[in-house]
Amino acid sequence: MTPFKLTDELLEDIRQLIADEKNGELQSMMQEFHYADIAEIADELNVEEATYLIKLLNSEKTSDILAEMHEDIREAVLNNLTAKEIASELEELDTDDAADIINELPKEIVQEVISEIEDREHAKHIVDLLRYDEDTAGGLMAKELVKVNENWNVLTCVKEMRAQAENVTRVHSIYVVDDEGRLKGRLSLKDLLTTSTKTHIKDIYISKVDYVNVNEKGEEVAKIMSKYDLEAIPVVDEIGRLVGRITIDDIVDVIREEADKDYQMAAGISREVEADDSILELTRARLPWLLIGMFGGIGAASIIDSFQPIMIGFPILLIFVPLIQATAGNVGVQSSAIMVQGLANDTVKGEILKRLLKEFSIGLINGGAIASIVLLISHFIFGTPYMVSITIAIAVILVIIIAALIGTFIPVFLDKRGIDPAIATGPFITTSNDIFGILIYFLTAKLILGI
Amino acid sequence: MTPFKLTDELLEDIRQLIADEKNGELQSMMQEFHYADIAEIADELNVEEATYLIKLLNSEKTSDILAEMHEDIREAVLNNLTAKEIASELEELDTDDAADIINELPKEIVQEVISEIEDREHAKHIVDLLRYDEDTAGGLMAKELVKVNENWNVLTCVKEMRAQAENVTRVHSIYVVDDEGRLKGRLSLKDLLTTSTKTHIKDIYISKVDYVNVNEKGEEVAKIMSKYDLEAIPVVDEIGRLVGRITIDDIVDVIREEADKDYQMAAGISREVEADDSILELTRARLPWLLIGMFGGIGAASIIDSFQPIMIGFPILLIFVPLIQATAGNVGVQSSAIMVQGLANDTVKGEILKRLLKEFSIGLINGGAIASIVLLISHFIFGTPYMVSITIAIAVILVIIIAALIGTFIPVFLDKRGIDPAIATGPFITTSNDIFGILIYFLTAKLILGI
């Protein structure tokens, strides 16, 4: 594939065509592009231009474009469409994408849009999906699936399947249900085609089928699907009735979003933002952790202030404060990141005590290495008196060990309490380790130098 | 699905059954488990136990178990198998998984293992795959696919497809090639079944098909497949010949690994490690960044040391060093994380100057807020003289703005130079911002307080 690349020239051309209302040229140009590429183009246009483009193309393609567009731009474009126009877009979409779009619409027009959807079955399915939280299996699933009754024979089954398959783009599996609609198993296409038409489905279906509950968390569904290499998974309600299916492409999005969220949390960004968001949004996402970090800094200032005699007696100790602080922060971030990742991937097993002991050993090795170098540099380069250099070195070892233990313990503790441990990396751990590190440093100095 | 949960009791039971050599019970127990679950069990056993379990089960299941197992444990278990036994496992695997396992085998037995594979076609395919870098499309692809010649008619095509499909677990697409094996397009199963058997394939195939080059980076393949919602993509060589296909489940693994790697890089972990790795491995992954952080700390110490007159004249300035350092670090990590993510998701467009201006504005707002609070606290709580408090507040604003600019600029700079910008977060940015932050702080003090 010559990959599509949205250049500034291409964008400029499209803008010009829109300005000149050259509809024919625009249409034939867009014909060549994949809907995902047109969505990328629309994201870069202003709202009027994007709306013009969307109105120009036909519903079958525009619905897919809308589904792929950036949420904010889509919202603005939909604002320029009538309820009837929105409904005709939703008509073309799979129920899951349609429900996602409805969830973004202003409350007052939702009712009208839904009532304008001509295919009432489709509308009913969309409404069904609206009641699930977007982070659950229910919020991820679509209604489009092929299901057959265990009491049918092969002939009825094939006939019914043909009708159902019309609404389903990709048939991943044929699900078998009982009279109450409860999921019983799945059917292999091969068995269906090689068995006599009078055979009952209940005699040929495979009862082993992976499924998830409608309230299962999206993250958990992603884990199950990627562990078992599934391309689709059926979703059942509380009493085991088949209510939808989730496909792997939606899960890919969940995995990406989850990873982005964890990454941002580790970087001290408290709300989901993108580089292109507004200054206000970016500020709101960043200020909270800066404030927490600031109070950490004020805390550190109070600690240093309370060791006045040391400051006066050994001012040289103060120039190594940044070293202590950086080390405490780095060690804390490292150990917490390893724990957070281990917890997310379910690879952390065994007792916490053993794990802390391991961190203690790693801290001892790293601490020993760093402390030796610091000892030499502070004594020979900065001319720090011998005892003071030893004090600094011992403090470095202690700080590294304790920072590692804190970095390991906090994520496990949060996880046990049901809190997402990902919050425990980045600024959280650096701030608390700043304070502990400096406290340990001055306490060590007080003990050894006896002030 | 009642999700599989590996409890300590279950593990103990299995260990006991292995110790007592109760093969029958073990076999019937494992019968009930999915191979991915058995792989999870094997990962927790010691090498002798895992080998015992693998040897007990039949090749069809064990090959899948081996493919899902943790690399280190698999390597150890394979060490206990003969070349012939390994070959019979590879026989059952898809070519991509088989090639991955061969890549881990000691060089001296690779030749022997390959020669023991009975299906010579399969062996040849595996050898083909060995020459690709594991991070490229070639390293991700498998040879199992269904392809038909454009010059065949529908009848020949259906016959040939049946034979090919036997070796392919899931048929995602039927690819069309010319006499030289070059990818021409794809075929819809529906068209194939509804057309007269004498029709030539060249008259019914769809020429629009997404594909990737064999040397394309895995990360890029992941982007393309998730952008276009593809479940499989064909891979072509330099002259356009169809050489393999990549399925979405392999891409899910690529996305997860990529996210894990970025997360670890941001946390200052320089080699891929897991919580369960050995103390030595974890130390080696962590020490490099701690050393760099240490040298940063030493640099900061030199800077403070070089402002001796200020230290003596205004010792109170020293207690706010941790605040300056923490703020510089946090701001740098935030801005770099947003840029790194934006670059990875291709959402960063437009000029760098505009983006720096935006960061400047955000820095001004955040800086203003933090500086005002610091001003009040330092003056009223710590009793810092008015001019010194103002000095600290101005330094805070400057530090926040400059840290934000550095955090934004470095990832863009690295990206332009072809270096993975993910390296620019975490310790890298905190270390450089520590130094810049402290330098700015004391320079500001020197300018305003005139020492």
From TrEMBL, chains A, B:
Protein localization: Cell membrane; Membrane
Tree of life domain: Bacteria
Topological type in the membrane: Multi-pass membrane protein
UniProt keyword annotation of Cell membrane present: yes
Entry keyword annotation includes RNA-binding: no
InterPro entries (UniProt xref): CBS_dom (IPR000644), CBS_dom_sf (IPR046342), Mg_transptr_MgtE_intracell_dom (IPR006668), MgtE_N_sf (IPR038076), MgtE_transporter (IPR006669), SLC41_membr_dom (IPR006667), SLC41_membr_dom_sf (IPR036739)
Residues spanning the membrane: 310-333, 362-382, 388-414, 426-449
Entry-linked Pfam families: CBS (PF00571), MgtE (PF01769), MgtE_N (PF03448)
Location, primary (coarse class): membrane
PANTHER family referenced in this protein's UniProt entry, alphabetically: MAGNESIUM TRANSPORTER MGTE
Subunit structure: Homodimer.
Biological role: Acts as a magnesium transporter.
Family to which the UniProt record says this protein belongs: Belongs to the SLC41A transporter family.
Protein's name in the database: Magnesium transporter MgtE
Organism the protein comes from: Flagellimonas iocasae
Source taxonomy: Bacteria, Pseudomonadati, Bacteroidota, Flavobacteriia, Flavobacteriales
